[in-house]
Amino acid sequence: MNTYEEQALRQLGKWQADMQAHPSFTSKVSGNIQGRINRAIPEKVHEVITTSIRQMTRAVFYGAGFANPKPLKNASLRVREHRVQGRIRFYRNAATAEGALTGAGGILLGLADFPLWLALKMKLLFEISALYGFDVSDYRERLYMLHIFQLTFSNQQQRNKVYATLADWEGYLQSLPQDINAFDWRSFQQDYRDYIDIAKLIQLIPGIGAVAGAYVNHRLTEKLGDYAMNAYRLRLIPKQ
């Protein structure tokens, strides 16, 4: 194991500890607050989010509307991650610009941000997976991407559960049912909604929507990239 891989392994270890941490008192309080805010958000906003997530997850699973980049073969971890970091910057900047534009446009464009940003994040995951050498035409790899997405946009309690699945991915595949509907779509949608509702609600406020949209999209797209890197290190580094 070379110096770069040792550094990546240390970063992975810290990330693993964070993924397995017990829910804090603050996170539990935040969850209660989030529940009250959810009830106050207009139903139309909830419908847009839920519909967007349902359509996007189906598109990801069936490969509809997404290019399947070829897996990068015979590359070192350093080379892979250099290219991954470049794609994270690209999609982070694209999401930042998109969030600023839709945030400046009021409620209608603010609602349009949900499906647009969701598509950018999924495309990022497709590219990251391929750069780590995995075949995204395989539905099991697309399922892995959905778990990374769920891991990133979940509260700590749910994050513990999703991480446990990723940590034993090979074992999970052995028991994977043939019926794709066995994936917990409802939980997936609700986790994502709960995680971003507060931030995205602020984006709909006139006058500050552009700043809020840019900031939220920038920060959370970068977080998704970081989680994806560590999720794939989880599978690759022990094999180095």
Could you describe the 3D structure shown?
By secondary structure, this protein is mainly α. The chain has one domain. The chain contains 10 helices and no strands. It has helices spanning 3-19, 25-40, 43-62, 77-103, 106-131, 139-152, 156-167, 169-174, 185-203, 209-236. α3 packs across α9 (185-203) and α4 runs antiparallel to α10. The protein is globular and about 50 Å long. It starts with a helix and ends with a helix. The mean pLDDT is 78.
What is the rounded distance between the termini? 7 Å
Radius of gyration: 18 Å
* Helicity, as a percent range: over 70%
SS class: mainly alpha
Q: Main sheet? A: none
Average predicted confidence as pLDDT: 78
* Shape annotation: globular
Helix count?
10
Spans of at least 5 consecutive residues whose pLDDT stays below 50 are none
Strand content: under 5%
Q: How many distinct domains?
A: 1
Order of helices and strands: HHHHHHHHHH
How many strand units?
0
InterPro entries: EcsC
Pfam family, one: EcsC
Protein name: EcsC family protein
Give a short overview:
This is EcsC family protein. The protein is an all-alpha fold and 240 residues long. The chain has helices at 3-19, 25-40, 43-62, 77-103, 106-131, 139-152, 156-167, 169-174, 185-203, 209-236.
Keyphrases for this structure?
mainly alpha; single chain; 240 residues; 0% strand; 10 helices; 77% helix
Question: What is the topology?
Answer:
Blueprint: H1 3-19, H2 25-40, H3 43-62, H4 77-103, H5 106-131, H6 139-152, H7 156-167, H8 169-174, H9 185-203, H10 209-236
Helix pairs in contact: 1-10, 2-9, 3-5, 3-6, 3-9, 4-5, 4-10, 5-6, 5-10, 6-7, 6-10, 9-10
